Amino acid sequence: MQGSKVYVGNLNYSTTEDDLRTLFSAYGTVATVNIIEGRGFGFVEMSSPEEAEKAKDALNDTEFKGRTIKVDEARPPRKRYNDRGRGGGYNRY
User: What is the value of pTM for the model shown?
Assistant: First the structure.
């Protein structure tokens, strides 16, 4: 694993950042937790790529709060151009 941040998907909407911190702390030191409200996913950053890999291997496809969670290496954010997904400032058809 390249980075130390993992994506956690299919979360129960009642899951809190403290819940994820507790779950992932069994596999190393949790640096940050960020849940995207109302979307059912979030990100956990561990203190090293090795700890992130260990957590991913142990927790992917396991049940947590009644849901089977998906844990994978976080991808870098996509480059965004503007609100309409096109470059430039005018609609040119």
Answer: 0.82
